[in-house]
Design goal:
196 residues, alpha+beta, Aminopeptidase, five-stranded antiparallel sheet, three-stranded antiparallel sheet, N-acetyltransferase domain-containing protein, acyltransferase activity, transferring groups other than amino-acyl groups, N-acetyltransferase, Acyl_CoA_acyltransferase, GNAT_dom
Amino acid sequence: MFPDLTRDDVFRIETRRLWLRWPRARDAEAITRLAGERAVAEMTARIPHPLPRAEVDAFLLDARARNIDGTGLTLALSRRADPAGLIGIVGLSAGAEGVPELGYWLGRPHWGAGLMAEAACALVEAFFAYAGGEVLQASARVENAASQRVLASCGFQHAGRAQKAFPARGGDLAVDLYRLDRARWRDWQMPSAQAA
């Protein structure tokens, strides 16, 4: 899914306020604290609350393995002023029917500043511009308006509603489905093309 340039742990994406970099073992404490908070965890399919440190360690090993073999790309979000810190995670992984899926979470102290939209849009751009991707999918719990705004800000279009497995929540939950293809992404990048 991803080219060689993303398969080295020195790979990073820089945005105006963030660095998106490979997650590291030293990120485990911040992940445990931020992702394990109930308000964050309950909007995700796989993060339990409370979040055991052993699961974070396993996640880090798995994310790095998928980054190395190119089957996914998981990146830690750090503020440019604190590149060793971690405030969230954004990633692309294999989704249903072979269509890559965008997923993310952001620590609660960092909500409301547009940081996740900045990070998600940067990863989406890398997927289409450098990885030769053709289509992405994503989903958000129906009550997660903030996540829906992130997806809309990156050009995703609403594609319906469905039930999706949320193992950490104990069953299936209703989600809004989103989709973004290369043509729409290209138009999204060129506002003058939309007006024509």
